[in-house]
Amino acid sequence: MAKYVIRRLLQMIPVVIGATFILFALVFALPGDPTAGRCGERPCPPSYVAAFRAEYHLDQPLLVQYGIYIGKLLHGNLGTNFYGNTVVSELAVRYPVTIRLALIAILVEIIVGIAAGVVAGVRHGKFIDYLILVSSLVVISIPIFVIGSLAQLVFGMRLHWAPVTASDGTWGQLILPGFVLGALSVAYVARLTRTNLIENQRADYVRTAKAKGLSRARTVTVHTLRNSLVPVITYIGYDFGALMGGAIVTERIFNINGIGNFIYRSINQRDGVSVVGAVTCLVLVYLLANLVVDLLYGVLDPRISHD
User: Fold this and answer.
1) Which of 93, 95, 78, 23 is nearest to 247 (CA)?
2) Helices (H), the chain
3) Taking the model in full, what pTM does it have?
4) Tell me: the pLDDT tens digits for 202-246?
5) What are the angstrom distances between the C-alpha of 134 and each of 120, 128, 180?
6) Do 259 and 282 contact (CB within 8 A), yes or no?
7) Domains of the chain and any CATH numbers
């Protein structure tokens, strides 16, 4: 196990280098002048522009800029944005909020999605199965900004069950945005769990377990469900990284001061340093989430070995 973890960590190094280089090249190739608007309505003096570009190494070739960035990254420094604030300090304020939001969405995804999938799989061909299928299809078909706006209108403004905005980022304020963020994933998890559960119920080991006299509940929970959750865990692990970086729409709707909102504002302000630093952290989250998922395979299915 230790050798496998070390090998996977070493494999992350070229992935991080390749991903950050592509990201760096794309972000700093975007059109627009980062000094626009810094001197009011008038254009900035050439001396100010030259000093600004020299300070952030924008006058250097791309490979030189990237080399400087990697050197700072090795020391845990994500750089200083165009407003004089370190990216690490900016992320330190916003990351806890986004993590809380993603955790709520993941819990909703796991509890509601897997439970709905199990019920639909066990009751295959019955009314409850068709109801879950139709409901999940409806949720998948509706854009997330529509779900968020409707939830904000109904549960926030009319029923007053939840705050309309979540500017403070507390757990209570993030419950409704978390449900909105996890709504689409709940539908996918439910359908994925149902499909795998139905398929595994036809396997030989399930028929053997039933022939030995095991109850239906024990057969499903102990044998069938564990094997059915392997692809579901894969999706959830991927989705955790997606939720960390893909919450831009949800954070904008509920005015959440998180990573998604921070990236959105940084793109509008053409602050490439902040965009690259924030997305680099998201790349690391993706890689670590995938590593955890791979380790969980052995827990769910003992036949999978990491040796």
Assistant:
1) 95
2) 2-27, 46-55, 62-74, 87-108, 114-122, 127-141, 144-151, 171-200, 204-211, 216-218, 225-245, 248-253, 259-268, 272-300
3) 0.85
4) 877 777 777 777 777 777 777 788 788 888 888 888 888 777 765
5) 11, 10, 18
6) yes
7) 15-74 (no CATH), 95-300 (1.10.3720.10)
